[in-house]
Amino acid sequence: MSIQIFILSKLMKGNSYPYELEKQLSNPVPLNTFAGLTESKLSYHFESLVKQGLIEPAGVMIEENSSERQVFAITEKGREELPKRIYRLLDGAKNITDMVLGLANLKYVDREKVVEILKQKLESRIARRERVEEIRRQAPIDKENEPLVDLIGKYMKTKGEHTIEWLEELIEEIRQGHI
């Protein structure tokens, strides 16, 4: 879904084709390599989006010393679908990294709806932290494993606290219009 959100968001800005998007991802930092995105993988997703009626062929581009390349445009159905996919991405995100593409495309969604999704995630994280603390207080710990249990507990607590703080900051930044 993330690749298709990426494609749809790029086509909101103007017509394009797989090779052009792959080139954009490679400069100045080779994000295409980090994400494992190749022109063929992008082409597959372009074809899938055409089948879904979210994009359509819009012409042919001939680059110097290259073959013809099919250029695509987003359809009205694609414009309507993009925000829905961004909401689903944010709602289903398991961690902060999963949210990046959705957050990079906030201009296509209702910011208040995004804030509500993030507030639910924040409340869920706070409730989870409390459940873990309660379990930790009640669980008997074998003395032999106590150092390991304490170390893992500290790691989990630090990670959870960081996520809570980050979500609080993110919500505030979106509310203030900084993001």
Topology:
Blueprint (H helix, E strand, L loop, with lengths): L1 H12 L4 H9 L4 H5 L3 H13 L3 E8 L5 E7 L1 H17 L7 H4 L7 H28 L7 H30 L4
Structural shape: elongated
Average pLDDT works out at 89
Helix fraction by DSSP (H/I, runs of at least 4): 55-70%
CATH homologous superfamily label of the largest domain: Winged helix-like DNA-binding domain superfamily/Winged helix DNA-binding domain
Q: What is the tally of helical segments?
A: 8
Order of helices and strands: HHHHEEHHHH
Side by side, the strands of the main sheet go 1-2
- The low-confidence runs, each spanning 5 or more residues with pLDDT under 50, are none
What is the quaternary state of this protein?
Answer: single chain
Structure commentary:
This is Transcriptional regulator. It comes from Lysinibacillus odysseyi 34hs-1 = NBRC 100172. InterPro entries: WH-like_DNA-bd_sf (IPR036388), WH_DNA-bd_sf (IPR036390). The protein is mostly helical and 179 residues long. The chain folds into two domains: 2-92, Winged helix-like DNA-binding domain superfamily/Winged helix DNA-binding domain (Arc Repressor Mutant, subunit A); 110-175. The protein has eight helices and two strands, in the order H-H-H-H-E-E-H-H-H-H. The protein has a two-stranded antiparallel sheet with strand order 1-2. Strand 1 (55-62) and strand 2 (68-74) form a beta hairpin. It is elongated, with a radius of gyration of 21 Å. The two termini are 22 Å apart.
